[in-house]
Amino acid sequence: VQLQASGGGLVQAGGSLRLSCVASGSSGSRWGINERGWYRQSPGNERELVAVIRNSGSVDYADSVKGRFAISRDNARDTVYLQMTSLKSEDTAVYYCNAKNVFGQTFWGQGTLVTVSS
Asked: Residue 46 and residue 49: Cα distance in Å, rounded?
């Protein structure tokens, strides 16, 4: 499974961005994916969960982004989105998308940089 993240950039505090993560690869490699998520990592910090969406439709968010970020997916396009609003300087980080399958494997995209200027 290959994951391609895009949509990062420079935005002022209070602004919005939408990240996209497209999954590609053989249908066999993508079979069994049951969870897609977004993580982020800022300098000096560990990678942390931002949001996750499961095949069941359930979603979870980090407390720091609840009410501001929304994760969604387009199954036809094998794409997961992260709509980010009311951005804060502390949201500045490299955002990574990932996918997990029923076999316990985890796949990562290359990351996209989000910079929020105050």
From this structure: 10
